[in-house]
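idk why but the lab printer keeps eating my pages so im just putting this in chat instead. protein + zinc ion:
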Amino acid sequence: MNYQEAREEYKAIGVDTEKAISTLEKLPISIHCWQADDVTGFEKGAGKLTGGIQATGNYPGKARNAEELMADFKKACSLIPGKKRLNLHASYLITDRKCDRNTIEERDFSAWVSFAKENGLGLDFNPTFFSHPMVKDNLTLSSPDDDVRSFWIEHAKACRRISAYFAKELDTYSVCNLWIPDGYKDTPADRLSPRLRLKDSLDKIYDGKLNGVIDCLESKVFGIGLESFTVGSSEFYMGYAASHKDIYLLLDAGHYHPMEYISDKISALLCTFDKIPLHVTRPVRWDSDHVVRLDDEIKEIAKEIVRNDAIEKVLIGLDYFDASINRIAAWVIGTRNMQKALLIALLEPSEKMRRLQDESDFTALFAISEGIKDLPWQAVWNEFLTRQGLDAGLGWYNEVMDYEKNILSKRND
Ligand code: RNT
Ligand code: ZN
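predcted complex ->
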């Protein structure tokens, strides 16, 4: 089916495909830098990934330095339609200076700012509380050791300043997301003290609003080696965020119990928060960070964003790291799937469906919600790609394979 025919079909149910396309064009997706190198980063001696997370697989061609990562990211972006942002981790600093996590500065990220300017990207940021010797016994901001806690408080504060620098330089907000691995392998004797120490650390970190920075806290349910207790649980951070102005809760789709979905949490948080940052990922049995598929939950997340008029409030970031497939393909497929889900949501007659719910006409609602699955959203997607200068179909894949052959396969670790 061609686009004009699809447009007519949607018009018949009261949906304007042109409006959907123009909304999708402007909707930014924050793409995570860490898919390119399995969360390794550029620090001297970087290697083993710790903190209860794991990238599995050894597909050849991972980025070994900033130059390679930037080239890979540009390649991926050339195959991804729409508006993009770049999500960095503190461990991806680019500097010759001798510094540690507690002494990083804006200048250690100036190369990223130039890159972002050249490529029209906003930058988001994450302090890195893992893969470092100052993570003692899997603890950072909740450690009983004052030196450990102070070190990581200084790190988080430095990261907030760097985030503010990104916002100022690039004239757009910068999400500064804090996630710590802290927890215990076995049932702890004391759950409260670590949480009170974390609270105290956060109070020291968030000692004033910084222009352009969207501060948020990412909760988790468990990590590898930390199966019994996580200090920064959902309730802990929700309470903290709710009682502190300008601090938000970030929802990672992999950080809840297997039958618990973040799609349902979006509307709940919209009642009290004006922003909801996301880490969209795909958990398979656990927080496995598989590449996002166009599955039911991603579609549901997108519907919740679109139906609730929350496009400006929900800040979509991706967070997955599959080392078993071509990493550029992983970026392209996962980001496009997020965008496809958003398009499918934008093509719903949501006003009408809401009305049917209020009128208790559940038969009509069911008929429509199932019926729209037969409508040709793919034709609208293809039109969107064409307008973005991209081909429909698997042309992108051939380009990635050429890049693998000519560039990635020449990288020998
Ligand atoms: C870990 C969190 C966290 C990381 C990234 C690398 O479980 O999801 O967001 O994945 O910061
Ligand atoms: Zn995450």
